């Protein structure tokens, strides 16, 4: 793929940043996973724009009307079961596993695709779709183990009779502050930060950038403009899978 001259220069500059970086922090959002077929629920025509869905996927609805909650949540879960990582996820895993770079990823996504791609240091700010927790006894279950119940429109129950809640941060749920503080530390330690596929408008995830070092480099790859574009060293309004793998490859080969 060929790029305009200025973009080619910018990619090469980012590759140089990457080559010399000792610690790389990543903040990823829905945009990195849309190339795997997962919709961006916060886009103008996304799922969260539908009022009935916003009201259903909440802690309040789960507690009061679990059957309504699972009517919508089961559709989301079942639509993601065959999703695979894309070139953006794989490029980050390559940095860590093939190039030996220290890479810490704080993701707003719940799809688990960073881990499937091979990334080892991943903080899931909004939880994940791999597990569910009994609201009565606290037992954790693997979500795939209750897939049949979701397919049959049933509310998944624990052996004790308690309702299982997906281990995701619903509207009305607090974040895991221990994990969030860990993400803050990663941002403060990194000399290079990538913001990938995130609008940087969702709090408190977007506040993580307030903890970065004054001398760290910031690279943003997102289809649309973000509030932090002016603070970034380089900004690419493009798909993550089109830009990041090229930066990673050039950092490795120097070509």
From TrEMBL:
MF term (GO), any: metal ion binding
Binding site for Zn(2+): 134, 137, 158, 160
Protein name stated in the entry: protein acetyllysine N-acetyltransferase
Active site: 126 (proton acceptor)
Ranges of residues in domain Deacetylase sirtuin-type: 4-254
Pfam families found in the cross-reference section: SIR2
Keywords recorded for this protein, A-Z: Metal-binding, NAD, Transferase, Zinc
Keyword Acetylation belongs to the record: no
CDD domains listed in its UniProt record: SIR2-fam (cd01407)
Keyword Metal-binding on entry: yes
Enzyme class: transferase
E.C. number(s) listed in UniProt: 2.3.1.286
Organism this protein belongs to: Heliorestis convoluta
């Amino acid at each position: 793929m060929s790029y305009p001259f200025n973009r080619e220069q910018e990619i090469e500059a980012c590759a140089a940043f990457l080559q010399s970086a000792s610690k790389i922090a990543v903040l990823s959002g829905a945009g990195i996973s849309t190339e795997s077929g997962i919709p961006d629920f916060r886009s103008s025509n996304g799922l969260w724009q539908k009022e009935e869905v916003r009201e259903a996927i909440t802690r309040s609805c789960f507690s009061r009307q679990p059957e309504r909650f699972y009517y919508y949540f089961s559709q989301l879960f079942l639509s993601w079961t065959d999703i695979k990582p894309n070139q953006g996820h794989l490029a980050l895993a390559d940095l860590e596993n093939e190039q030996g770079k220290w890479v810490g990823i704080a993701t707003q996504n719940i799809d688990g695709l960073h881990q499937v791609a091979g990334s080892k240091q991943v903080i899931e700010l909004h939880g994940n779709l791999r597990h569910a927790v009994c609201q009565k006894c606290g037992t954790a279950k693997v979500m795939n183990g209750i897939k049949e119940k979701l397919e049959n429109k049933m509310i998944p129950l624990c052996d004790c009779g308690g309702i299982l809640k997906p281990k995701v941060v619903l509207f009305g749920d607090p974040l895991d502050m221990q994990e969030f503080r860990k993400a803050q530390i990663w941002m403060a330690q990194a000399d290079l930060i990538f913001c990938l596929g995130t609008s940087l408008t969702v709090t408190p995830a977007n506040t993580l950038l307030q903890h970065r070092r004054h001398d760290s480099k910031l690279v943003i790859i997102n289809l649309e403009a973000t509030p932090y574009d002016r603070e970034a060293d380089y900004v690419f309004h493009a798909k993550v899978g089109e830009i990041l793998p090229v930066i990673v490859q050039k950092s490795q080969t120097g070509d």
